[in-house]
Write a structure and sequence with these properties.
It is built from 5 helices and 9 strands. It is an alpha/beta fold and 170 residues long. The strands form 2 sheets. The protein has a 7-stranded mixed beta sheet with strand order 5-6-4-3-7-8-9, with helices on both faces. Helix 2 packs across helix 3. It starts with 7 loop residues before the first strand and ends with a strand. Bound molecules: 1-O-pyrophosphono-5-O-phosphono-alpha-D-ribofuranose and adenine. The site of 1-O-pyrophosphono-5-O-phosphono-alpha-D-ribofuranose (PRP) has 18 residues, from helix 3, strand 7 and helix 4. The site of adenine has 8 residues, from strand 2.
Amino acid sequence: MELNKIIRDIPDFPQKGVLFRDITPLLHNPQALRETVDQMCQVLSQFEFDYVVGPESRGFIFGVPVAYAMNKGFIPIRKKGKLPYETLSREYSLEYGTAVLEMHADAIRPGQKVVIVDDLIATGGTSKAIVELIEEAGGQVVNLMYLIELVQLGGREMLKGYDVKTLIQY
Ligand SMILES: O=P(O)(O)OC[C@H]1O[C@H](OP(=O)(O)OP(=O)(O)O)[C@H](O)[C@@H]1O
Ligand SMILES: Nc1ncnc2[nH]cnc12
């Protein structure tokens, strides 16, 4: 199944000049959803790790089923003010704005290994902030896994030195 054919392009969303890659048709299609999660698990099966880390909101969509299928725990990264316990936090910039991400301070113990799962890497700003949160907690990022890579936005360069895997490149 060609997953790239099911992703819908929306010009000028959420602001002028951004070509938004809409994954909702892929989520709507049971076969495409299963294949996406299965392919992510297949790639990640070569790594040893303790947790899947995924950012709100779209990182949750793929991160939790991957964690479930691989019998791992899931660590949510949330936008500022949503996590109830003590947090670590990082400001970051996006293709369309800036924000603050947080992780629970006790989510990762020093030496634990994690993979980051998200729907898409654009500038890499979100993922860089997550890597910094994980490393501040003493964790090690062994892989970063995405459905979509927007190559021209340079996310890979931002994450130089880390192992980035993507299923579809634009
Ligand atoms: O590589 P970057 O330039 O950081 O961009 C990628 C991030 O942007 C999107 O999330 P967004 O912040 O739009 O939030 P959402 O998942 O709640 O829609 C996407 O799901 C990634 O997390
Ligand atoms: N162009 C884009 N399409 C979909 N999600 C995004 N997140 C950041 N940039 C994006």
